[in-house]
Amino acid sequence: MLMVTAQELLQTKYVRVTLGNKISEMLGAMRRARADSAAVFSGKSFVGMIEKRFLLNSRVDLKSAKVGNVVKRRSKSKVPFFVPHLAPDADEKTMAKAFVSADARALPVIEGKKLLGIVHQKDLAKALSKYYNIPCDDIATMTPIVTTEDAPISKAITLMVKYSIDHLPIVDENDKLSGMLSLTDLIQNQLFWHTNRVNMPREASHQGGKKAGYGTVAEKRSKTKLPVKIFAKKPDLCVIAPRRKVKEAIDCMAKSRINSIVLARFERPVGLLTIKDVLKDYWRNM
Questions:
Q1: H-helix or E-strand containing 182?
Q2: Which site from 62, 98, 157, 206 is most exposed, i.e. has the minimal number of CB atoms within 10 Å?
């Protein structure tokens, strides 16, 4: 099978923000574009990428903060923001390794100093689906990663950050799926803007050996104990049986525009498969 390159997968239409844009302006642009990330510029110079989920870790006042506040706080390097980038001829394995190592949803394709476009991890996963005629539970995390409607939102956020997921399943008193907490619903709720001031231990905000705050695992101490049900909605759930093929799960995630899918038996979640799981398996085993 022929391998695809970054040049073939890159998207030239993407959300563009500056360090001076307000977070609210960035989120508005992301919502209109149905995007989870944006390319950050300082004048005409490309600085790096910012993602919605970075806001879960932020110590800044989200109501008035600018993009530059979040970008600078996520990097301990001497530059405003470090982000790994792809060369136009990067192959599938090179891209998979970069996405997994950076724990990123989108990576820039750079030639010289010019930003050619953005590659999204979901597009790479779709390109790799031809290799995945194996059951989901072969590579998924076979532990239920869930919350309840009455659980404090701080614990739900901790799970989303720890497992690098944008959607967290909600279960009822019988451990059956009853809804989903999404990153988008959380951030668009005004209560989040007023209460998401958190304190993270130093080891959680910047892991040793990681770049630019990627791979953060936050044991967050939220100042709010508001229940999950205030933030959650009950959309159509993207669920698949553990023994269904990985390529089917990738297709479902692509159609639903999500980065993880719940593995369930008899309406009860038994595991979670993420796009990162697929990319990690391809990088290490193919």
A1: strand 177-182
A2: 206
Domain at 205, CATH number? 3.10.580.10
Taking only the tens place, the pLDDT of each residue in 2-26 is 789 999 999 999 999 999 999 989 9
- Quickly count helices (H) and strands (E) in the chain: 11, 13
The CA-CA-CA angle for residues 77, 78, 80, to 5°, reads: 85
Residue 105 above 60 pLDDT? yes
Distance CA 160, CA 29 (A): 23
Task: Locate all alpha helices (DSSP H) within 103-164, ordered by sequence.
Answer: 121-128, 153-162
Amino acid (one-letter) located at 77: S
Asked if 112 and 197 sit in the same domain, the reply is: no
115 and 147 together in one domain: no
What is the domain range of residue 193? 136-285
Of 181, 118, 115, 113, give the one whose Cα is nearest residue 151.
181
CA angle, 148 then 153 then 158, to 5°? 95
Last residue of a domain, one of 93, 115, 130: 130
Q: List, for residues 131-165, the tens digit of each pLDDT value.
A: 999 999 999 999 989 999 999 998 999 999 888 89
